[in-house]
């Protein structure tokens, strides 16, 4: 089974996402930026669903650090799943190397599922 | 203690004056001596003339030498004391990076007092500029922090509710008589999400932090889409909304979403303030580099006392009855700002036939090589 990393600090949303993905993917959860970076090393996910507003290290910084790596993990697909939605947030994320951007409140879980399928299968 | 240029100049002038006076005095004394001696010897006039000439020549020559030395001294002093420190200061100021908190260098020990004073004055000014610059940067960060925080705080619970209701809707255990209720709730949540988005965008526009995305836009298509969205509302009020298609209209450079918002606001306003059986007509014209959009209504018009204030925040004219005309009063204020951000202007005039108002605004024509930023924005 493919591993996906979901970086989300809100427990309610984490719960709702979890029930969707479990079974189909090996789902790892991180609740802050530091943990996210740690789990990338440890579990080498095939896809990262990344929130931006995170405690400790924020989402942008996680993305930056990921793309600054020199190993194969550097190109791990990242889909931003955040509630920040200003054009400048999207622009910044895409410039830092995100593969896609979704505003949580504006999408259904199905749409997120479909996006994951697109990147992981 | 530093030399003062003023003191130095004074001293030099005093010295030169003293030297020159002494010189003239001695010259005079010498001339007097020589001439007395000559007269006693009873020499011819030409010899006396010669003698006088040689005195003048020698005196003049020494004066020239003296002035020359003085000039060289002045040039050297001004170079060392004034020109070099000024050059150094110019170099420091022009290579200064406001953002890097480096300390301002001190003037050389040999620089005179006036130059040192200027150094300190410029250093003070630089520190004040840095302070106000960092205040601006902080204010700017605070503005975007507010929007980010508000977005996060508002959307997080909305997301939770939305996903939960969607899950509920899909649940096979949900009794069928409960389905419509759940569906309604889901619709309302989606509406709320849309309202939050508009609020956040408006907040960003207000604080100048909105990143417009300009692209060549077909205004006719946009107008059609706006009118379609307001069809129901217009029908309810028995107001006819029509578009007069232009013969030929170039694409304009616009942020489609924001201009749509402006059109919706203006047209909705027109509908709202037009009585039943009235009409709202949208038309276009283009002149040179600009395309104009007109929204003409057959409504109650804008009374003179409201004219000045109509674009102000939260202003709603006295003729707007409270329940019927529920606007926030922000629409026109923001619409005007959006159009201005597009380098256009939104205004209105009373119609020539005395019935209703026409709101109009202009947008720039998109040139063929247009990229997605407007110059200066």
**Structure class of chain A:** alpha/beta
The tally of beta strands of chain A, per DSSP, is: 5
Structural class, from secondary structure content of chain B? alpha+beta
Main pleated-sheet profile of chain A: 5 strands, parallel
Greatest interface: A-B, 21 and 26 residues
Q: How confident overall, as mean pLDDT of chain B?
A: 84
| Total beta-strand segments of chain B | 7
Strands of the largest sheet of chain B, in order across it? Answer: 2-4-5-7-6
The strands making up the biggest β-sheet of chain A line up spatially as 2-1-3-4-5
User: Could you list the spans of chain A in which at least 5 consecutive residues all have pLDDT below 50?
Assistant: none
Mass-distribution shape of chain B: elongated
Molecular structure report:
The complex is a heterodimer of chains A (121) and B (377). Chain A is globular and about 30 Å long. Chain A has helices at 11-21, 33-43, 59-67, 87-96, 109-120, and strands at residues 3-7, 26-30, 47-50, 78-82, 100-103. Chain A contains 5 helices and 5 strands, in the order βαβαβαβαβα. The N and C termini of chain A lie close together (10 Å). Chain A is an alpha/beta fold and 121 residues long. In chain A, β1 (3-7), α1 (11-21) and β2 form a beta-alpha-beta unit. The longest helix of chain A has 12 residues, at 109-120. The model of chain A has no long low-confidence stretch (mean pLDDT 92). With 377 residues, chain B is α+β, with helices and mostly antiparallel strands. Chain B is built from 9 helices and 7 strands; from the N terminus they run ααααβααββαββααββ. Chain B has helices spanning 5-41, 45-94, 113-170, 179-206, 219-229, 231-236, 256-272, 304-307, 331-341; strands spanning 215-217, 240-243, 252-254, 279-287, 290-297, 346-350, 357-364. In chain B, the strands form 2 sheets. A 5-stranded mixed beta sheet of chain B has the order 2-4-5-7-6. In chain B, α1 packs antiparallel against α2, α3 runs antiparallel to α4 (179-206) and α5 (219-229) crosses α7 (256-272). Chain B is elongated, with a radius of gyration of 41 Å. Residues 320-327 of chain B have low confidence and may be disordered. Chains A and B meet through α1 and α4 of A and α3 and α4 of B.
């Amino acid at each position: 089974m493919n591993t996906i990393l979901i970086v989300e600090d809100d427990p309610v949303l984490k719960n709702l996402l979890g029930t969707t993905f479990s079974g189909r993917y090996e789902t790892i959860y991180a609740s802050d930026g530091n943990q996210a970076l740690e789990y990338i090393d440890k579990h080498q996910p095939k896809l990262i669903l990344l929130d931006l507003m995170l405690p400790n290290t924020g989402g942008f910084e996680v993305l930056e650090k990921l793309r600054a790596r020199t190993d194969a993990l550097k190109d791990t697909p990242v889909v931003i799943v955040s509630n920040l939605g200003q054009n400048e947030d999207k622009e910044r994320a895409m410039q830092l190397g995100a593969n896609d951007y979704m505003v949580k409140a504006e999408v259904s879980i199905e749409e997120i599922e479909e996006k994951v399928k697109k990147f992981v299968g | 203690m530093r030399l003062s240029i003023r003191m130095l100049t004074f001293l030099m002038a005093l010295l030169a004056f003293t030297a020159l006076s002494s010189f003239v005095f001695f010259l005079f004394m010498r001339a007097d001596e020589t001439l007395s001696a000559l007269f006693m010897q009873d020499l011819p006039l030409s010899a006396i003339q010669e003698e006088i000439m040689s005195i003048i020549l020698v005196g003049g020559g020494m004066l020239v030498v003296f002035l020359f030395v003085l000039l060289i001294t002045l040039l050297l002093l001004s170079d060392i004391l004034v020109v070099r420190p000024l050059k150094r200061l110019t170099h420091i100021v022009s290579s200064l990076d406001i953002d890097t908190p480096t300390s301002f260098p001190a003037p050389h020990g040999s620089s005179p007092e006036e130059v040192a004073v200027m150094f300190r004055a410029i250093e003070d000014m630089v520190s004040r500029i840095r302070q106000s610059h960092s205040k601006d940067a902080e204010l700017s960060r605070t503005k975007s922090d507010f929007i980010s925080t508000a977005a996060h705080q508002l959307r997080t619970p909305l997301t939770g509710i939305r996903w939960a209701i969607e899950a509920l809707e899909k649940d096979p255990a949900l009794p069928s008589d409960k389905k419509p209720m759940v569906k309604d709730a889901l619709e309302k949540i989606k509406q709320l999400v849309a309202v939050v988005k508009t609020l956040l965008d408006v907040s960003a526009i207000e604080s100048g932090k909105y990143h417009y995305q300009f692209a060549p836009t077909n205004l006719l298509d946009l107008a059609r889409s706006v009118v379609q969205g307001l069809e129901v509302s217009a029908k309810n009020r028995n107001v006819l909304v029509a578009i007069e298609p232009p013969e030929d209209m170039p694409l304009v450079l616009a942020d489609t979403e924001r201009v749509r918002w402006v059109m919706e606001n203006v047209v909705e306003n027109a509908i709202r303030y037009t009585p039943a059986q009235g009409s709202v007509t949208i038309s276009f014209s283009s002149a040179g580099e600009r395309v104009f959009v007109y929204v003409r209504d057959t409504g109650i018009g804008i009374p003179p006392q409201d004219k000045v204030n109509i674009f102000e925040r939260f202003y709603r004219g006295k003729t707007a009855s409270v329940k019927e005309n529920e606007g926030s009063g922000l629409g026109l204020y923001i619409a005007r700002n959006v159009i201005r951000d597009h380098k256009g202007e939104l205004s209105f005039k009373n119609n020539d036939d005395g019935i209703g108002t026409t709101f109009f605004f202009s947008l720039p024509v998109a040139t063929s090589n247009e990229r997605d930023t407007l110059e200066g924005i």
